[in-house]
Amino acid sequence: xxxxxxxxxKDLSLKIKNKLGLEKSPVAIKLVLKExxxxxxxxxxxxxxxxxxxxxxxxxxxxxxxxxxxQSCKGGAGAIGLxxxxxxxxxGEMYYSxxxxxxxxxxxxxxxxxxxIDPIMKAIIYAPLETAPFDPDVVVxxxxxxxxxxxxxxxxxxxxxxxxxxxxxxxSICGDAVAGPYTTKRPNITxxxxxxxxxxxxxxxxxxVGMNGENIGCVVNAxxxx
Length: 226
Fold this sequence. Notes:
The chain has helices at 6-20, 51-59, 74-79, 87-90, 93-97, 104-113, 145-155, 172-184, 194-199, 216-225; strands at residues 27-32, 64-66, 123-128, 138-143, 188-190, 207-212. 39% of the residues lie in helices and 13% in strands. Residues 1-6 have low confidence and may be disordered. It has 226 residues and is of the alpha+beta class. Helix 1 (6-20) packs across helix 10 (216-225) and helix 7 (145-155) packs across helix 10 (216-225). The two termini are 21 Å apart.
């Protein structure tokens, strides 16, 4: 959509939920450079939790914004542009120390490949898509594999081609589902990570789809045509 239209997003969200049979709402995400750019009426979250938990909260109906201070996972906050990632995350040391990689080198190569937004953002806004009072930069959908398949089919419906999923099992909802679509302008599907499954309640049969907000209308049109 070219401009913010609350009723329009309500309609798009309901169509996505009904067509796919989603239990939760698609999540609208907006990155803002200045705190004064946050729409009136949206409050700051009153607790410190992880970005993946915030996405889950928005999928269940909450609307709020968060700065780096409220992000308890600083690696995630670094991926979505709220701060410079901690040195132990940037070097790969943290993931190597957790036994996720056979060497520091393999950890560093993986971390270097994770999408990251330049650390210039002041805040990130989370809302269910149907009530978002802003144009989302990214729309995140928590769904099952069949529903993700239907979204992938919708994304290639008009122009054809192949859907390419890009993930490594770490920084999934921050790097894969938000930073990736934001920086590359391409959608992505990710399988979650240990952190999102442990802290955000991502179920064993959940996958996460991140899409560009400006293309969401085209995706819905394709879903309806299929």
